[in-house]
Amino acid sequence: MNDEKPTPREGPVTYVVEHLDPELGTWSALEYACIARESQAAGARFLLTSVPASLQLPEHLAKTEALEVEQRSVEEIFADKKSKVCLLDPAAKLDLSPSDGDQFEVFLFGGILGDDPPRDRTSELRKKGYVGRRLGPKQMSTDTAIRVTRMVVQEKVPLDKIPYIDNPELRINEHESTELPFRYVKGSDGRPIMPEGMFDLIKKDADRGVDDLL
Ligand SMILES: C[S@@+](CC[C@H](N)C(=O)[O-])C[C@H]1O[C@@H](n2cnc3c(N)ncnc32)[C@H](O)[C@@H]1O
After folding, report:
1. What residues flank ligand 1, with Cβ below 6 Å?
2. What is the DSSP string of the chain?
3. Is the CATH number of domain 14-156 1.10.8.60?
4. Chain segment 146-158, per-residue pLDDT in tens
5. Considering only CA atoms, which of 126, 119, 145 is closest in space to residue 46?
6. Of 144, 138, 154, which Cα lies nearest the Cα of 44?
7. Which residue is closest in CA terms to ligand 1's atom 10?
8. Residue range 42-83, pLDDT digits in tens
9. CA–CA separation, 21 and 6 (whole Å)
10. Residue 10 CA, distance from chain mean position
């Protein structure tokens, strides 16, 4: 039997979003600003990597203090500690557990828009050979995926003890509502936790459909 425990992590947890889309739209910008604020409050770092020099960040995001923007890719930055990087991967065999917070230092996410059905663009990161962990069977927005990872690895709440809301229906006006085909964390007010400004954006975008927006 192997009783060896992983060496406890030194330093803060780091969350990395590898930006994989050619653009950075309003939806992603709201998510990234929210991730930066929540990571800072939890004593963690947040890096947005592979951001082309030519990409103009929206002003509010560029001004977000807790966000570290990197032109380098995750592979370059963490080349010397690949085994300490965990890719959050909807196709991974094992689900994330609180003890993964001791084994890994860096949690890596695909900076891609949610889509329904999912196109498995996380495969672009999977092929780099990182160890993968799943956050359950349902697709989450990137900020939700990081929120859930933080609850598991920093707050040590098991994945199946987190309260979720699946496919929430948001009321746009008296006559219309729209369903978001993703999993969210349920807030203390009983509503899905979303980045500030997201609900207003969804209302504005309601006519365009939400299949390719998160
Ligand atoms: C909005 S999701 C995009 C998933 C996307 N549809 C795809 O093609 O892979 C953005 C990122 O959140 C993470 N993520 C979302 N749901 C997840 C889940 N159930 N398990 C593990 N990671 C998840 C992954 O890192 C993923 O790349």
Report:
1. 88-90, 109-110, 112, 114-115, 118-122, 134-136, 138-142, 145, 214
2. ---PPPPPPPS--EEEEEE-SSS--HHHHHHHHHHHHHHHHTT-EEEEES--TTPPPPHHHHT-TTEEE-SS-HHHHTGGGGGGEEEE-TT-SSBP-TTHHHH-SEEEEEE----SS---TTHHHHTTT-EEEB--SS-B-HHHHHHHHHHHHTS---GGGS-EEES-EEE-SSS-EEE--SEEEBPTTSSBP--TTHHHHHHHHGGG-STT--
3. no
4. 999 999 999 999 9
5. 145
6. 154
7. 142
8. 999 999 999 999 998 988 888 888 999 999 999 999 999 999
9. 35
10. 22
Q: How far is C-alpha 115 from the chain's CA centre?
A: 14
Domain ranges, ordered by start, for the chain: 14-156
Structure tokens at 151: 């609850």
User: Which of 93, 104, 119, 122 for a ligand 1 pocket mutation test, highest count of atoms within 8 Å of Cβ?
Assistant: 122
The letter for the amino acid at 110 is G
Strand partners, 43: none
Atom of ligand 1 nearest to the CA of 113: 1
